[in-house]
């Protein structure tokens, strides 16, 4: 009996970067000849976690996806004959993700754990790609700010912990239900292979949203634990703060003025009025320098709607304005600094899964 584990969207080039040699014919089909026709896992711990040891695995890539079947006719002496779709899917990922070292016996269990995390990240990104679009990216990125933005360094409360799911009825969370529904679709598919916390999913999704809009690649690690309830109220920065109040608020969360200005550049996508709403670039800072809301006056309906009060405050504060000028002139510097501070943001206040022994 063969167990089909379904399809995983990928490309033919991904297949051919597998550690298992393959040569794609003109049809873009790759066939993976396994060692002796059998799956051989060198780590007993990893083999046990996948649920099988010496099974025959067939995997084919046809350009649009990978389909795998697991021969279930000859289980090991202490194995269950019923292998789940999750277990088969993990096995296929081990074969098909570039750079996988699962089958190299000289590697140690600690190294295998790192590779396993990379496989998980690859799968999360792949499922997010299916549900994300440029038009949805601003809302998805906003989730990261609202989940992590409750952090308070004075008592180490709040932070990136998935508590946002309990806070969707708060005024500051208006409009976040829609991007949550987008991520729920991806989460359902991901958890066919392994469980993923909301904190991890939101963190990776925010980085994926930036990339979807042609922004920088932002590496995000996994392992955040979810909270069991909401964070305290009144911890999110209000949209009416002055520059001085804004700087004090971000300082209480562990962020410098430069980091605050870089994070504010996320408003370059979405409907805040800063350039192309679907392109992650440095237009936000260039438009801040122009101060169009002052040129048009309060009665100009178009210019009066550009940005939030906190965006405009950056252009009227000398310390903030220094960094606005830097990023307006150098998009590469903005990308570098935004990537660094986004990584810091999604790690802020996070509680982590204890490392395995």
Automatic annotation (TrEMBL):
GO MF term set: heme binding; L-ascorbate peroxidase activity; metal ion binding; peroxidase activity
A Gene Ontology BP annotation from the UniProt entry: response to reactive oxygen species
Domain of life: Eukaryota
Keywords from the named record: Heme, Iron, Metal-binding, Oxidoreductase, Peroxidase
Residues annotated as domain Plant heme peroxidase family profile: 137-357
Pfam families in the record: peroxidase
Cofactor: heme b
E.C. no: 1.11.1.11
Family: Belongs to the peroxidase family. Ascorbate peroxidase subfamily.
PANTHER family given in the database record: L-ASCORBATE PEROXIDASE 6-RELATED, THYLAKOID LUMENAL 29 KDA PROTEIN, CHLOROPLASTIC-RELATED
Name of the protein described by the UniProt record: L-ascorbate peroxidase
